[in-house]
Known about the structure:
By secondary structure, this protein is mainly β. It has helices at residues 58-65, 79-87, 95-98, and strands at residues 4-5, 21-26, 31-36, 39-43, 48-54, 68-73, 103-104, 113-114, 119-127, 134-146, 166-169, 172-174.
Amino acid sequence: MQLQTIDLPRCYRLLNHGPVVLLSTSDGTRTNACAVAWIMPAELDPPRFAAVLDHASKTYANTRVAPECVINVPTVDALAEVLVCGTRSGHDGDKLAAAHIATVPSSTVRPARLECAAAWIEARVIGEPAAADTSVLLLEALFAEARPGVIDGDGLWDVLRHPTLHHLGSYRFAVPGSVRTA
Ligand SMILES: Cc1cc2nc3c(=O)[nH]c(=O)nc-3n(C[C@H](O)[C@H](O)[C@H](O)COP(=O)(O)O)c2cc1C
């Protein structure tokens, strides 16, 4: 399958609609991934994102060792993987292997991509304003790709054909059902 390379100045459009993502990181030995709902575009050029991470997570610990990650953007088809990554901790072992969540090598960073995603933004950590129990990781995109058809002819995510997951809280997600053009 030929993935679509996304121009970096436009890669914010992979997250502009606010989907939950799976953030993969590495401790230098193995890739781990956690669910992250608190993530948003933060700057257009250079393309940057802000993600809130719990200090207790293995993901946060990994970014201290290797300040890079992949923002994996899943669709509804990957709900099971989102729940595994969002409810188990990499501190307790290799949850990706235990749940048979496949990875594929990234192009520019050491953490692997998750095959279950529909688009990927490879990024490095460039800053980290800290709160009490969390940090806001400032991420700068290095490379972005999407599966064919995910991005429509206007350069926007086709949420009707490739519906993303939008976290409402608890284990409930909204899934886009309509699009209006103003
Ligand atoms: C839908 C969903 C969204 C989540 N969003 C966040 C988030 O924005 N930031 C965060 O630190 N944890 C978030 N979590 C919790 C982590 O994914 C969870 O604590 C995970 O087990 C951490 O894994 P790790 O220790 O392997 O990094 C979310 C969990 C779920 C299920």
